[in-house]
Design a protein that fits this description.
single chain; elongated; mainly alpha
Length: 86
Amino acid sequence: MKTDAHKFGLAGALTVGVCKTVITLFLWMWPTQTWKFLASAHMMTTLNMLASYMHITLISFLIGVTIHMIFAYIFFSFLVMLYNQL
């Protein structure tokens, strides 16, 4: 049975978009706790060196979500196309 690459790519892109939105909301509402969590998730002691460069604006959020969703769609669609070739 073949998997539909377009639908799978859309589902993957939507999932990535939701995750990015949730992380951005957490960074906006609770920046200190979120930075600590992200540092531990990346196995680092601190991400304070990056905190001064990160400014959350509506434009930066929209650009980031759009770029991540486009590349997620391409990645998941390509992955399913390869899977269908097996």
